[in-house]
Amino acid sequence: MRRGRFAPTPSGRMHLGNARTALLAWLHMRSLGGEFVLRMEDIDTARSRREWAELALLDLRWLGLDWDEGPDVGGPYAPYTQSERLERYEAALRKLEASGAVYPCYCSRADILSAASAPHGLSSEGPAYAGTCRHLTPARRAEKALHKEPSLRFALPENREVRFTDGIAGPQLFPPGSGGDFVIRRADGLHSYQLSVVMDDADMRITDVLRGSDLLDSTPRQILLYEALGLEAPAFLHVPLLNGPDGKRLAKRHGGIAISAFREGGAPPERLVGWLAHVSGLIDRPESVSAAELIGEFDLARIPREPVVVDVPDI
Ligand code: GLU
């Protein structure tokens, strides 16, 4: 059985860009007759709010999407909320530690910037970590531990390139060391997105991860984590983002893009779904259509391979 998911971070109101990813992930799975899971990625409790999580569920249902498993409906792999799954992430961490794939890092943000060297890090993170703490002697480690709580980093395997074929973006090749050794638990104890998403997708038996292309360069990290944990990686499909008229990724600052604002303003959901389907290449004109009506004709090949520039729709 194929299984897909949508995994929003409730750090604000869900907007057109998130809804478009949700719609495509849902259509992809429903068109294959597969199961769809909703997972709330609220691990960063400082950024997440319960009200935004609740609003996201309302927005998604209003758009005509449904899920077989999720925080509100439960399911065999519950809980579906990251803040309730911390022991799973700790278990993964212990496994990685036991295999020697993890080391403590005492670097400050300033240390990281000053030691930065090629290759580049993730586009969202700036320069790659230079590996400063990777080869500290036990004595240096003990000395540093007196002054600072460390973060924990995953040591990228030496000379290991990562190749995979993305279901939308095509063949990918990341040279050895891409992105640098990355944090899997922050100094304040927060498990990283990379670790939690891998454990969750594995635990929830997800076979197809369709998400925004801002996460394409996280994928080699996740593939290496699957490997280090002895887990099978899912198929990945990264959809190009929606950009605002200024060419930048659609975001709150573009204004008027919150799904709840359309809903509360009395917009018919089918018009919004039609607009989302149109900007995703699924229908020729932005006419009203329900999410369910799009399942039959859904075709990944129609999704544009480049970011799409959009105006905020007047619906
Ligand atoms: N929670 C992430 C976000 O809202 C998505 C993570 C994923 O799909 O892997 O951007």
UniProtKB/TrEMBL annotation:
Residues 4-279 form the Glutamyl/glutaminyl-tRNA synthetase class Ib catalytic domain. Gene3D superfamilies: HUPs. The keyword Zinc applies. A motif ('HIGH' region) lies at residues 8-18. It holds the Pfam family tRNA-synt_1c. A motif ('KMSKS' region) lies at residues 249-253. Its EC number is 6.1.1.-. InterPro entries: aa-tRNA-synth_I_CS, Glu-Q_tRNA(Asp)_Synthase, Glu/Gln-tRNA-synth, Glu/Gln-tRNA-synth_Ib_cat-dom, GluQ/Sye, Rossmann-like_a/b/a_fold. Its cofactor is Zn(2+). GO terms for molecular function: ligase activity. Zn(2+) binds at residues 105, 107, 129, 133. L-glutamate binds at residues 5-9, 41, 193, 211. Keywords: Aminoacyl-tRNA synthetase, ATP-binding, Ligase, Metal-binding, Nucleotide-binding, Protein biosynthesis, Zinc. Catalyzes the tRNA-independent activation of glutamate in presence of ATP and the subsequent transfer of glutamate onto a tRNA(Asp). Glutamate is transferred on the 2-amino-5-(4,5-dihydroxy-2-cyclopenten-1-yl) moiety of the queuosine in the wobble position of the QUC anticodon. Belongs to the class-I aminoacyl-tRNA synthetase family. GluQ subfamily. This is Glutamyl-Q tRNA(Asp) synthetase. It comes from Saccharibacillus alkalitolerans. The gene is gluQ.
